[in-house]
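INFO batch 0412 | record 1 of 1 | parsing
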Amino acid sequence: MWILDMLKKKADSPDAAVISREQSLTYSQLWSQSETAARYILERCRTRNPVLIYGNKELEITVLMIACLKTGRAYVPLDITYPRERVRHICQDVEAELVFNCSEVSLEMDNEVQIIEREEIRKILQRPCQKEVPSEKYVKEEDNCYILFTSGSTGKAKGVQINRRNIENFVGWFSNECLEDNENDIVMNQVSYSFDVSVIPLYIFLGAGKCLFSIDKEMLDHTKLLFEYLRKSGINVWVSTPTFLEMCCFDDSFNEDLLPGLRKIILAGEILTKQLVSQLNEKFPKAQVINGYGPTEGTVLLSSCVITSDMMKDEKMLPIGKVLPDGEYKIVDDEGNVVKEGETGELIISSKSISKGYFKNPEQTQKVFFEVDGKQWYRTGDLIFEEAGLLYYVSRKDTQIKLNGYRIELNDISENLNALEMISNSVVLPSWKDGRVSFLTAFVTLLSRDEGKSDLKVGIEIKKRLRLRVPSYMVPKKIVILDHFPMNINGKIDRKKLEEEYL
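INFO prediction complete | emitting tokens
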């Protein structure tokens, strides 16, 4: 069911919808404040252009996103970690009339743009709701609900359009995969709203009447503070990237004692390793682990599966599961021919969850989207293979490099590093010189450190063990041992930061 229909049913409920530190927003407040905000947007905007919402995990953001849906407008969520220059470019791209700045950071835009600062936003939301917005104003099936800007190969961000039909298809499928009948569930709301995994707590769990417990940027920057709030949270459902969860697992106190009610762990956005799942099984033995896969262009996820003990015993990497029910897909080689089962190729997929394309960017849209018999298809750029009805993620097509004439998949090296019992996780990056790859560097985190061994000796041992698994030309020249990986705003491993600091 559509999120606005679900929220209207709880319009008089005193139950908490979102908790942010010591503050909370009830379902009743969410509904009435979003009505007030929607009226404000309708009064101030002459067009139906997208509305920018800038901030992190402030309570007002949830209200404003719902308000935009009530006015038939898409919202564009931008995290506070976005450089102001990029915010200005995006504002120009979508021709926004209105920017809600929920943060304490000052924004400078063109004179035509109305910037509503945080204090003014709070005053607006406290106004009494005079009259409800008629449902005829709500976003329609083909109307955009949100636009997420992702990095583009041209250096300019691409705006992925997700409409109501896309979201309803995703929610209709994934709700059955992850929702239970526990009315009082508390769901972690950690992922930045500018990253599509945040849609899972918002559209599925908030739309089902659950309570979201927000984790803000300051908590992410201070582990002690994070754990203090996690202990208070009572979280039952965890939603994040594997990298964020791995960072938490490095602390011995991150276990069932900290989160005794944790029953479900939903992970997406990156490769999920067996090492991490093993840690989770030990720390949270009663929690079910769900692995999800999907590009932003496919509305969060296109496949998923519950990780079983048989999958953990299998010599292959963990699967990304089965494609959603309405999905049609092909795995093809470079010439577009369908590969045999077990062979690797690019995943090309059609579903009602597939975006109609990039906002006002027909050139980039035509490169990866195409239509056949009225169905929208998308070239994912992801290399996949299928075995026994399950899909397995290999790598991005663009992570394939050439070194001394050898064609190498960087994730192939990483998978073999992760198979070593001493390693928790790894990333392999190329070093370039004169337009060519000169050597490879592996960044690794260890399951445990031997204080008697230097990083140099550990690196030598890692290389020695890796040579037993891959050809010598695939063994990285440098091994960099880290306590934990840096994260970007999406909670993924920040490869750019690794390059800047070490390469």
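INFO post-check: The radius of gyration is 23 Å.
INFO record closed
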